[in-house]
Amino acid sequence: MTIVLVDQMAALALSLADRAYVIEGGRVMAEGTAREIADSPELADAYLGAG
């Protein structure tokens, strides 16, 4: 089943997802497993509010 989830609680959303896509301005900026996205320091700083 595919579900599109838009959420400001990225850690929660990634904990529930198998795959994740980071979309900015209508373009896919990154994609991968939820673990890959969550573990990426660059993506965490830029998009996930970690920095």
Automatic annotation (TrEMBL):
<keyword id="KW-0813">Transport</keyword>
<dbReference type="InterPro" id="IPR052156">
    <property type="entry name" value="BCAA_Transport_ATP-bd_LivF"/>
</dbReference>
<keyword id="KW-0029">Amino-acid transport</keyword>
<comment type="similarity">
    <text>Belongs to the ABC transporter superfamily.</text>
</comment>
<dbReference type="InterPro" id="IPR027417">
    <property type="entry name" value="P-loop_NTPase"/>
</dbReference>
<protein>
    <submittedName>
        <fullName>ABC transporter-like protein</fullName>
    </submittedName>
</protein>
